[in-house]
Design the sequence.
C-alpha cells in the first residue's frame, strides 16, 4: 500500500517525466495520506490508442489511480487527488497540438487486499 497505477498515452512518452512524477507523488502520498515511503509502489502503463468522443486524433490522456488502505477521510483523499493533478501539470511538458485529458482518483482497497514481501 499504496498501489498507484498511471495509464498514459504513448504520445506523452517523450514529455512525461515518469520517474520524477513517481518520486514526487510518493512524497505527497507520505505527507498527505501518512503512507510509509517504502510502501509506495507505482506502475506505468503506456496505452497506444486514445479515442475521445468521436475523435481518434489530437488527444492525449493520463489517468492516475491511487488505492489506499481504508481509513483516510474524504478530505484527505480529495487533497491527494488535487496534489496528483498538480504534479501531472509539473511533470508533463508541452504536448504540442494535442488536447491533454488528465484525471486522478483515490480509492480504498477492498477488505480482501493482502500482500507479502520477500528479500
Sequence:
Amino acid at each position: 500500500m499504496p498501489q498507484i497505477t498511471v495509464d498514459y498515452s504513448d504520445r506523452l512518452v517523450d514529455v512525461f517525466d515518469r520517474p520524477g512524477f513517481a518520486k514526487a507523488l510518493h512524497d505527497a502520498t507520505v505527507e498527505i495520506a501518512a503512507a510509509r515511503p517504502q510502501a509506495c509502489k507505482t506502475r506505468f502503463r503506456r496505452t497506444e490508442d486514445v479515442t475521445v468522443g468521436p475523435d481518434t486524433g489530437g488527444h492525449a490522456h493520463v489517468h492516475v489511480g491511487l488505492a489506499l488502505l481504508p481509513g483516510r477521510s474524504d478530505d484527505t483523499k480529495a487533497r491527494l487527488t488535487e496534489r496528483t493533478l498538480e504534479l501531472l501539470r509539473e511533470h508533463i511538458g508541452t504536448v504540442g497540438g494535442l488536447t491533454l485529458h488528465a484525471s486522478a482518483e483515490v480509492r480504498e482497497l477492498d477488505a480482501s487486499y493482502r500482500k507479502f514481501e520477500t528479500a
